[in-house]
What does this fold into?
Amino acid sequence: MHQRNLAASVTPSQQALFDQGREVGLKAHERFPDGMHISVPHYHPDKALAATSKAIASGALTLYEGAFLYDDIIIRCDILTREAVGKPWRLYEVKSSTSLKEEHLPDIAVQKYVLEGAGQKVEGFFLTHLNKECYYPDLSNLFVDVEVTDDLREYLDILPSEIAKFKKMLMQQSPPDIDIGPYCNNPYECSFKAHCWKDVPVPSVFNIPGINGDKKWQFYTDGVIELSDSRLTGLNEIPQRMVDNSVEQKPYIDKSGLQEELSQLEYPITYLDFETIAPAIPRFEGCRPYGPEVPFQFVVYVEKEEGAKPTCEEYLHKDNTDSRQPLIDALLKAIPETGSVVAYYKAFEAKCLRALAEFDPANADELSSIESRLWDPMVAIKKCVYDPKFLGSYSLKAVGPALLGEAASYADMDVSDGTEARITFEKMINIKDNGSKKNQLYKMLSDYCRKDTYLMAELVKWMRQVLL
Ligand code: SF4
It folds into this structure.
């Protein structure tokens, strides 16, 4: 690879995804028990190849992570299995997605090319993905196998010429001169983006909210990148406002619209934020892969009446048991039976509340009542406010510091987003003793969720002050 040093290092969120993929892979091994695991790391290819040859020679019927080499390409196969020595293999490529995706096929096609080139007979190629219809505790149908043998042909036809192209490119002294494109983000975000996108200004057409990716790339292809470009017209209201106010570097506030939005709020006003997990391999009654979201934490601030000091209640589950029932019990005690419930991007809290109501029919009415009283500050801000510092984003992490100042920034927080909260929670519940490390993680989570909730209350205060 050219200039590997320019690649961004792996973020904690990406590492969590890799760890999850590994966990799913290991779970898939259980379907083909007693296999030989070629656990040699990828940076020792020769050892992995030798270990694989030895395992095959010894009569292994199932290999996990087997390594093969052909035409200068090394592959590692998730699962290779055969009925008996001398019989052909079947290959299972395991993905932690819940469906077969177009980008999975070239990956398997390369494996077919190398396996057959290396002299292995393979009779079937399968993509194994998680099953959306599998519900805990019955995990017997956790995986779905999709045979893709016939779908590989179109990729195999072009593979030799593609491989030749890649080899030529890798032999060159300098990286290929390729412009940025949709492939920088799709199907995965490329780790070289910070380097290749360094000349794209922020904000640019890529930061305009409310227009789709195709339109942004069309602007780019037409040479329209800067927001000050006079050809950037004909947008809908919100994107056009972002463009105009960014160029003029002037904030936008529609006071009468804001007044109307705020008039919907009724005391007592509750500010609510959930943090959740949705593991790939379900762990709790009625859950399937990645759903529903299981809240493990909430923070609630309640303002009883105008000007009253808000009171704070929180719940944070401490172990790896199902958090839902104790969380619901605490939530119903913390949230008043009347008044508005403020949640930033309320669609998420609404989804959690509906899932909790389904889980706990005895409290479904109370939970539905909370859902029906949700009020979203993001809706009010999108309609009535724009600040050039938003840089096109209406997330709480962008809007908070832009309107409330640096004190609203998450830069110094140990946990600074929902993904980090999940990772921290998983770490905390897997610590065996209740010592200081566990307490420290508990505090990090508590601080993060309190900050999200507190910022919502501060944003509503900011909106009110703007109207004075
Ligand atoms: S152009 Fe895009 S896809 Fe290619 S290396 Fe750069 S960031 Fe990655």
